[in-house]
Design a protein that fits this description.
Two copies of one chain form a homodimer. Chain A has helices spanning about 10-25, 35-45, 55-65, 70-90, 105-110, 115-130, 140-155, 160-170, 175-200, 205-235, 235-240, 245-250, 255-260, 260-275, 285-300; strands spanning about 100, 105. Chain A is mostly helical. A two-stranded antiparallel ribbon of chain A has the order 1-2.
Chain lengths: ~300, ~300
């Protein structure tokens, strides 16, 4: 079989990334609408950046579930807006105090701190708006459940809670279980939400299958973080597009500082295998999810 | 007719305020659940403070529409959590840099800036969660519309946008129209949302009636701000429970600096009259809304 550019993973991912950029441009308020500076800063913080891993996971899960593209676009945008808001707030001086993100000055550097604060706040509101403006599931009650899923994944028992746990433990020695607790919340919750929200846009799926997808998301979310820690320790700033070595410099616990690079890589490989295993029953329909799993573990940036 | 404590406005408001405090305590994550410090700071920022004007408006609109108390409790909590998050973020050093709120140290003073940032973020997520965990309307599609209403009222075209407009105009001379634009967004949007969300918890209401309620909210929301400006200029810090004279000191445009105190009071009275007029058709069912309108304009703190 000839692999053409639309069929191979890189072609699939690039096509979605390119198309999705236009989708985000359309969903974000135009920067000639008041308040103009806030809207410009929101666009600056979301557009033209990132690997769009979470949207791609939503698209892959949506394809698996036979969802309309217009529906998965909305959940992908919602998840990416939550992700973007968390980066804007995390980069602020009172949090990680970072000046570079995706190869560009961070939002509070390019604009100002007050604007960055409001950009994050407004992106979160817009994310929830994304999930309720159009029917995303034949059953509106299921759509309410989708909103709940995103709210829980974003809040104090999800992403924001993981961030709080992270801050509370700077400079402390964490056990492997504690580090895992932190990352399952900080990055894992939103990755899992991306996959499930994509799947909910499609036809009804048995709970057991949703649980399998969720387990894939849990494993790949954790693998994502382990790989991030390895890259942060080994790659350079130019390749990453953000300040390398930052976590170790800040005395933050990472998988590399806790396990060493060799064991951390082994852990990533094991999580990768477990993730792929949980997709077995889906056969070829899960192809893109599998490829994303491979990409997350094999990436160099 | 004898006015007993349950029947007069003060009795009605106190009973709701007291009951609602327990409701909020129950809806907020317990502070012995991880991340404990974040949850403690969320509770610190929401509980034991404020006049609960927005919840009372939701309750009054809910009573008008014959809504179950358990439903209006959820929308009232959602709106109050959005309000509380906005106060926590607005008080931060990069925004208004205030140290006193509701007679207590502000969240970033009592905890720290990073925690305050995450408190606001987490309260916003929790607000949306409040709106989707239980059926709030017989029609789930209408409940999705309620989520949209809160998202729009909170975001860059609502409350957060008003705040951005406010920041962009510190030290500038604003026209009355610009000042009104700012406040209709900054405080008005959430007040209107509180009323409509309360009404949506009840039986179906004709669009014309909803428009009347919304007009009441628009007028009373603006009156609320005009009165706030008058109080800020005239009352003292101990009475307000927050730093008095702050806005004028910060060179922020207010109705008092723009119109003078006499004209500002006249404007509040006119808005009050217009608000009450839009309730005429509801008769005695709108009694609590009318009383809240009176309270908002007559209050001394």
């Amino acid at each position: 079989m000839t692999v053409n550019s639309a069929d191979d993973f890189q072609g699939w991912a690039s096509a979605h990334q390119c198309r999705f950029e236009a989708v985000l441009k359309n969903f974000l308020p135009a920067d000639d609408i008041a308040p103009q500076r806030l809207h410009a800063a929101m666009r600056y913080s979301v557009l033209d950046g990132g690997k769009r891993v979470r949207p791609l996971l939503a698209f892959a899960a949506g394809e698996l579930a036979g969802a309309d593209q217009a529906k998965t676009d909305r959940v992908a945008a919602a998840v990416e807006m939550i992700h973007a808001y968390s980066l804007v707030h995390d980069d602020m001086p009172c949090m990680d105090d970072d000046v570079l993100r995706r190869g560009k000055p961070t939002c509070h550097v390019e604009y100002d701190e007050a604007t960055a604060l409001l950009v994050g706040d407004s992106l979160q509101s817009l994310a929830f708006q994304m999930l309720v403006e159009q029917p995303l599931n034949a059953n509106p009650a299921m759509q309410l459940k989708m909103v709940r899923l995103l709210a829980v994944a974003s809040g104090s028992r999800g992403m924001a809670g993981g961030q709080a746990f992270d801050l509370a433990n700077v400079g402390k020695q964490l056990s492997l279980a504690e580090l895992e607790f932190m990352h399952i919340h900080k990055t894992g919750a939103l990755i899992r939400a991306a996959i499930l929200l994509g799947a909910y846009c499609g036809g009804e799926m048995p709970d057991a299958q949703l649980a399998r997808l969720d387990h894939f998301g849990k494993c790949i979310g954790l693998a994502f973080q382990v790989v991030d820690d390895v890259l942060d320790a080994e790659a350079d700033t130019a390749t990453l597009g953000k300040t390398a070595g930052k976590d170790a410099d800040n005395d933050k616990p990472t998988y590399v500082t806790l396990l060493g690079a060799v064991e951390a890589k082994k852990m990533a490989a094991e999580l990768h295998a477990e993730a792929l295993q949980s997709l077995d029953e889906f056969g070829s329909a899960a192809r893109r999810l599998r490829e994303l799993g491979d990409f997350i573990v094999m990436r160099k940036y």
